[in-house]
Design goal:
- It is built from eight helices and no strands.
- The protein is mainly alpha-helical.
């Protein structure tokens, strides 16, 4: 591929990293620590089967929650013309998609991803302070899944086997499917499946009752 494109993307990656740490630094200065200013965030290193199960639950629910929340953000970036032009267009400007293009996005787009991730990293789904170990594993697994969803190589094929959102995300970029079949969930697929199901019911009803549709 063109070296100029690689250089541009490398510069974008550096700027994304700088913006990320600036944003995190500002966030921790403004928003109180989970559990209060003087509370300690537990490390959460597992030392028994029970604590290992707790760690797995922390990481799993955090990733599922991130994917569910960002689904609505991602959907709005495509369906709202202003957001698509101002924020998400940058992520789709490449004619081909590689793993490194996971970092190609506008400041607003990237900030929304970071903000959603920080929110789900502060507390567990059941309300307790999320452990440091769970946070680290969450970031590692989520970064891997997002990178794998953009790569064109067949060697990184761990989550693509099981997660439809990861497996089909490149189609979302390359335009191999029609607009009404686009999937906006980055990792999994249940919310898009639900959206398609609702649309199929609406389409069937409108087909049977065209005059009532006109009166809405």
């Amino acid at each position: 591929y063109a070296s100029s494109d690689a250089a541009t993307n490398d510069h974008g990656a550096v700027m994304s990293l700088i913006a990320y740490w600036i944003g995190v630094g500002l966030f921790v200065q403004v928003v109180p620590k989970p559990g209060g200013e003087h509370s300690e965030i537990p490390y959460g290193l597992p030392n028994s089967l029970e604590s290992f199960g707790f760690l797995v639950a922390e990481v799993t629910t955090g990733i599922i929650l991130y994917d569910a929340i960002f689904f609505f953000v991602h959907w709005s970036m495509h369906e709202c013309k202003a957001l698509r032009f101002l924020s998400h267009k940058e992520h789709h400007r490449k004619k081909f998609v590689e793993a490194r293009h996971v970092l190609t996005h506008s400041l607003f787009d990237g900030s929304m991803q970071v903000l959603v991730n920080i929110c789900v990293q502060r507390y567990t789904f059941w309300g307790s302070t999320k452990t440091r170990t769970a946070r680290a594993l969450h970031n590692l697994i989520l970064t891997w899944m997002l990178t794998e969803s953009h790569t064109c190589t067949s060697s990184l094929n761990i989550f693509r086997k099981w997660a439809r959102g990861v497996r089909e995300h490149r189609q979302h970029h390359l335009g191999h499917i029609s607009h009404d079949k686009l999937r906006y969930q980055q990792l999994f697929s249940y919310l898009d499946d639900a959206r398609f199901f609702v649309h199929s019911i609406e389409f069937g009803w409108e087909t049977k009752h065209p005059l009532k549709r006109m009166s809405w």
